[in-house]
């Protein structure tokens, strides 16, 4: 079957998907969490479940570009502490997808994202000093890492919406801009690649969807280059505000749809 007619995609619809793919590239190298807007666009143009399968390979392309750009700034102790909890969240998300309908999925994730944004905003307003990413070695830090890890794994599996959850965690841990981007780049490359077998098993990724991905991947690179140019012109405070704002917008969209 011709990929471009698989879901009867019109030219305006493909243009919307291409813009969403460009936004994925931008979010991966500039404002993590902004790709929740891409999630909403994909879900509006394509069937809800199918959209998650089409979007995942596009995200992986963006992750590769982000790793190539910020590979020197990753904080690996944080990553190693997150991965076990994220794996548990991915498994929970897979089980959830087996029975939950689209309405339940959207509402659950939207509420989680808005809660994470509110908690992080309040914490940044009331904090007396910056945290240290190495603070995850404390007991409280480990509990927080595990909690966010499970939430991140769950949301990324059910709707590719783990970005805002991890953004909230990295901000709350006191990561600066480049450390934030480097750590999240490796995190999502590893997590998204690990999700592929689950998505294939659920029937969310197949040959035709990968052909559509090949066309959309062409738009990820210019978005990533735009993000790399923009990130050097965004100060830390504005960076944090944009990340939180993108999270709120993404969460609200999921609740409104």
From TrEMBL:
Record-annotated membrane-spanning stretches: 49-70, 82-99, 105-122, 178-198, 210-231
InterPro entries for the chain: TM_pro_TauE-like (IPR002781), TSUP (IPR052017)
Tree of life domain: Bacteria
Membrane topology category: Multi-pass membrane protein
Lineage, opening ranks: Bacteria, Bacillati, Actinomycetota, Actinomycetes, Kitasatosporales
Family: Belongs to the 4-toluene sulfonate uptake permease (TSUP) (TC 2.A.102) family.
Assigned keywords, A-Z: Cell membrane, Membrane, Transmembrane, Transmembrane helix, Transport
Subcellular location: Cell membrane
Name of the molecule in the record: Probable membrane transporter protein
Major place of residence: membrane
PANTHER family documented for this protein: MEMBRANE TRANSPORTER PROTEIN YDHB-RELATED, TRANSMEMBRANE PROTEIN YFCA
Pfam families according to UniProt: TauE
Signal peptide: none
């Amino acid at each position: 079957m011709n990929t471009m007619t698989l879901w009867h995609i019109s030219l305006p619809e493909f243009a919307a998907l291409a813009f969403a793919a460009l936004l994925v590239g931008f979010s991966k190298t500039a404002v993590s969490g902004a790709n929740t807007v891409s999630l909403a666009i994909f879900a509006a143009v394509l069937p809800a479940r199918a959209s998650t399968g089409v979007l995942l390979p596009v995200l992986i392309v963006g992750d590769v570009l982000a790793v190539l750009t910020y590979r020197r700034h990753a904080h690996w102790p944080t990553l190693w502490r997150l991965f076990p909890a994220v794996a548990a969240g991915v498994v929970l998300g897979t089980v959830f997808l087996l029975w939950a309908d689209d309405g339940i999925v959207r509402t659950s994730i939207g509420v989680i994202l808005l809660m994470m944004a509110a908690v992080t905003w309040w914490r940044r307003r009331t904090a007396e000093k910056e945290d240290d990413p190495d603070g995850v070695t404390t007991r409280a830090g480990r509990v927080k890492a595990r909690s966010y890890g499970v939430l991140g794994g769950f949301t990324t599996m059910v709707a590719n919406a783990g970005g805002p959850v991890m953004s909230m965690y990295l901000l709350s841990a006191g990561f600066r801009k480049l450390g934030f981007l480097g750590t999240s780049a490796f995190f999502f490359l590893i997590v998204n690649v690990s999700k592929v077998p689950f998505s294939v098993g659920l029937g969310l990724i197949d040959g035709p969807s990968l052909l559509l991905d090949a066309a959309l991947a062409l738009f990820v690179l210019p978005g990533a280059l735009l993000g790399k140019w923009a990130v050097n012109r965004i100060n830390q405070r504005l960076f944090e505000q944009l990340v939180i704002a993108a999270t709120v917008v993404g969460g609200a969209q999921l609740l409104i749809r």
